[in-house]
Amino acid sequence: MIARYTLPETAHLFSDRSRYTTWVRVEILASQAQAALGHVPHEVVQDMRRARVPDPERVAELERERDHEVLSFLAAYCEDIPASSARWVHHGMTSYDLVDTALGHTLARATDLLTAAARRLRRVLSARALEHWDTVMVGRTHGVHAEPTTFGHKLAAHAFAVDRCLGRLAAAREAVAVGTVSGSVGTYALIDPRVEEHVLAALGLAAEPAPSQVVARDRHAQLLQAVATLGACVEQIALELRLLQRTEVREVEEPRTGAYQGSSAMPHKRNPTTSERLCGLARLLRGYADTALENVALWHERDLAHQCVERVILPDSLSVGHFQVTKAADLVEQLTVDAGRMRAHLDESDGLVHSSAVLADLLTSGMEREHAYRSVQAAAGHTLATGEHFGTSLAKEGIDTAALDPERFLTHHQVIRTRLEKLHALQD
Asked: For residues 137 and 118, what is the distance between their CA atoms, to the nearest angstrom?
């Protein structure tokens, strides 16, 4: 994780200290169940509870000798436990009973953080969409003026995209919130399945239904795909805002402090750096998602090829995703919208944005399509060549100009607003 793109909540969650704290909790829960079943002495649990969470530096010191993190963790942990009890710690378990069960718990919590951030983004988008529902502007296709729309409509589309992402995150959270305490090849040969039931119930996890030695890695791939899709939707928001901040457009502007400096050489620059950063982070998330797919196929009951990869992509994906979504919500919430420039750009088209309405009226009046299209196209070409208003060019073609009203394009706009209002009412 890079501190620049990591917020404190996720930094803490994926820290070595937090991981070892969760490992201790899993070990204590497993020993509780073992003691209740009469498989280990009851005083073992008390001794384990009194022991401190191993210091990460001590675990690292032992790992340099042993080349095995879990055994180094257990050795460090048991340094604080009487030998009579230490011999029972991790009884009947294998390393990934501990690692994957703790990981499922951590990933569920990390997904909850990301989900909360995404809900806030949805709420901000829908609120600002309603605020600017009637802020008329030109719609653009292929980067070229098309028909009138509103800025609220644009933001509504993004709000619904984030809402769909929340559904994907919910499904992915369910997929990764699993664990296993089933032994070396997942057969429960040396551990009672009731131990697993106790541990997972306490952690709020489901059981891997047919464990090998590890939790199936398609689960993690599903989560990172969901995170990457959310990242792509944030990128779409950021890309739109980047385009609307170009010098010749300047319909919106990112929030800036009074001490803002956009360039070391050009003091006039006001660059869309926040939006650009959000777009760049989406590229990372897609890379993590692709890499997670590479981890799905493991040799037989397990190998270790996935482990070093996951140490990077799991914390990085969740931390970058959380950072990106949080900053996107800040950006939209504080965005300056220039409704005047939006309307001015609509008017600067010399009426050309009304061509589809003129064509529709001609077709309704009975004119043959090819003739109607070519007539409107000729008038548009004249406007582009001369700068003469489209209404004047149409008149020269003998075409009525009553259709040249931007509000006409918004006649049935209320149906979309009604859907948006329902979405906004769902906010947490």
From this structure: 27
Tokens describing residue 34:
């073992």
Tens-digit pLDDT profile for residues 199-231: 999 999 999 999 998 999 999 999 999 999 999
Of 367, 369, 375, residue with least CA distance to 393: 375
**Which of the residues are catalytic?**
142, 263
Place of tokens 């959380």: 322
Q: How far apart are CA 147 and CA 221, in angstroms?
A: 41
343-361 pLDDT, tens per residue? 999 888 899 999 999 999 8
The first and second tokens of residue 242, run together, are 């980047």
Is a pLDDT exceeding 90 seen at residue 248?
yes
> What is the phi/psi pair of residue 89, to 5°?
-65, 135
Dist CA 195 CA 32 (whole Å): 8
Tell which CATH architecture fits domain 1-91.
Answer: Orthogonal Bundle (1.10)
Radius of gyration, CA atoms only, the chain: 30
CATH number, span 93-341: 1.20.200.10
* Same fold across 1-91 and 93-341: no
pTM beyond 0.85: the answer is yes
Q: How many CB atoms lie within 10 A of CB 216?
A: 18
To the nearest 10 degrees (0 to 180), the angle between helices 273-294 and 218-244 is 160
